[in-house]
Amino acid sequence: MGVDLALEALVKAYERRPGLAAQKAAWHRQQAELCHQRGEPDHEVHHYDRADNYEAVLDRLVRCRRCGRELTDPVSIERKIGPECYRRDARAQTAEPADQLPLNTGTDPL
Ligand SMILES: [Zn+2]
């Protein structure tokens, strides 16, 4: 199958630089999001396809989707993200909603 051959070629091309595959996956996801915002569905689909390709490569190599590092423990392999990147993601999510902090308490920092 053509698709599998293409994936095979990508896996070969990136097996020695999985970090680059991870960067490209992230970049294409970002571009897809930008295309979505600009209302360019054709480009959006293109970038999602490319991101899927690179993530398929990382799957095959058993590598972290964020940084491309090798995954060793079953939990990390299951969620496809290494422990450090997973913790960083979790922190980013819990740190995010600043608007839930009470307003107008204490002194004005400005
Ligand atoms: Zn990682």
Based on DSSP secondary structure assignment, what is the total number of beta strands? 0
What gross morphology would you assign?
flat
Distance between the termini: 62 Å
* Helix content class: 55-70%
Structural domain count: 1
Q: Specify the oligomeric state.
A: single chain
Mean pLDDT: 88
Largest sheet: none
List the ligand species. zinc ion
Number of helices: 5
Poorly predicted regions = none
User: Per DSSP, what share of the residues sits in E-state strands of 2 or more residues?
Assistant: under 5%
Question: What structural class results from the helix and strand content?
Answer: mainly alpha
Alpha-carbon Rg, integer: 18 Å
- Secondary-structure element series: HHHHH
Kindly describe this structure.
This protein is an all-alpha fold. It has helices at 2-14, 18-38, 41-61, 74-79, 83-95. It has one domain (2-95). It is built from five helices and no strands. The chain is flat and about 40 Å long. It starts with a helix and ends in a 15-residue tail after the last helix. Zinc ion is lined by residues 64, 66-67, 69, 82, 84-85.
Short précis:
The protein has 110 residues and is mainly α. It is 67% helix and 0% strand.
Short descriptors:
67% helix, 5 helices, flat, binds zinc ion, mainly alpha, 110 residues
List the helices and strands and how they pair.
Elements lengths: L1 H13 L3 H21 L2 H21 L12 H6 L3 H13 L15
Helix pairs in contact: 1-3, 2-3
